[in-house]
Amino acid sequence: MRGDALAALARQFVSYLGVGLAALAVHYGVLIGLVETGRADSVRAALAGYLAGAIVSYGLNRRLTFGSARPHAEATWRFGVVAAIGFGLTWLIMAALTRGLGLPYLAAQVLATGAVVVWNFLGHRVWTFATRPAAMLREGASGVR
Question: Is the pTM of this model over 0.85?
């Protein structure tokens, strides 16, 4: 990767992390609120927090991180697929670490977050918000060149 491309990727990832902090605040707020009030166990609370954070993440990442012009009708379902896989990873990691290994829920969530943030960034960068190839834009919906 060339120097300027690497620098652009680094800037984009830093922006992604900044947006992630906002989404993370929502996620952890829901998680802690549900667990500490006894309304949900740690795994269910983590999943509820993940969904709340995903709502924040979509809007901010679309606009600030990726500057995507992909239509919402296309970007939202793609975002949903990437987020659903991240949701599944969150469930697996949280269940394994809290129920299987008995780790405290916040420690388990920090580890889950670390794994899922990498998956989500890559998925959104290369698929959800990726720029459409120019050939597809010229061909339009008909596929005729």
Answer: no
